Amino acid sequence: MSELTPVDTPEAEESAVYPVPGERLPPPAYDELDAILDDLRSREEEIPQWEFCEGFMAAVICNRRPLSPAEYLPMLLGDGITAEETDADGIPALPAFADAAQQARFISLWQARWNEVQTALDTKVDNLGDERCYEPEVMDMRGAIATLSEEELAEMGDQEVPSFGQIWALGFMFAVENWPEDWAAPRDKEAAEWLDDALTRIVTLTEDDTGKPELSMFSEDGPPSLSQARLDAFGDAIWAVYDLRQLWKSFGPRVETLRKEAEPGRNDPCPCGSGKKYKKCHGA
């Protein structure tokens, strides 16, 4: 990633030099996103972590029907009701943000990451080591906690720590579950099996990693925090996202067909309520 940082002036800190069109978001951008979401949680407890947002974003990009920000942003950061009033860019005002400037900054970073993910998913790659490959922004929380001192661990208490990639997968499936019609299996049997297999690979990550810790994604020399099977499952989930993107692009949005209501029989009562037979009323 390019090492872009804001310049050291108060004005520049409010409008950091990232995102830069065509550049990948640098690490400070994700720190800023985390800070914004932390602030939102001070007003609305159900605001998710960025890793959840990252998974949600990937699913929305893959969604069979293109979703507008007015439809998906309230589901992620609001009350779930599609916004009727939006700005010129189709962005609704969300009450969790402190002000319009904070929301605009979040949307700027969101859109930059959106462009990165969409470009990656539309690029043909043969291996996960390709620098053009989609790389979900996830954190090895168990690996991070394993590096803490006993005092720091005592302060944390007995809170549950998610497995590697678990929050990302939950965010992805949150979007799938909220637009079920768009994720309904197609009639084509092979495509339906393809869809089921891809979603199963992502659902696998929503479950806990119960394997023997062998690796650390937090640091190269950190204590083991995830199993090899978990890392393999994470790779499978990334390929699943590619499969889902290509599947729905090949099918396109679902076409709604209008069904003509069955016409009453000639001797049936007329549906207008006149009490006459259809043949002697509106069917005459």
TrEMBL record:
InterPro entries: SEC_C_motif (IPR004027), YgfB-like (IPR011978), YgfB-like_sf (IPR036255)
Pfam families: SEC-C (PF02810), UPF0149 (PF03695)
Taxonomy, superkingdom: Bacteria
Record SUPFAM superfamilies: Sec-C motif, YgfB-like
Region feature Disordered, mapped onto this chain: 1-25, 260-284
Listed NCBIfam families: ygfB_yecA
Protein name: UPF0149 family protein
Biological source species: Curvibacter microcysteis
Taxonomic classification: Bacteria, Pseudomonadati, Pseudomonadota, Betaproteobacteria, Burkholderiales
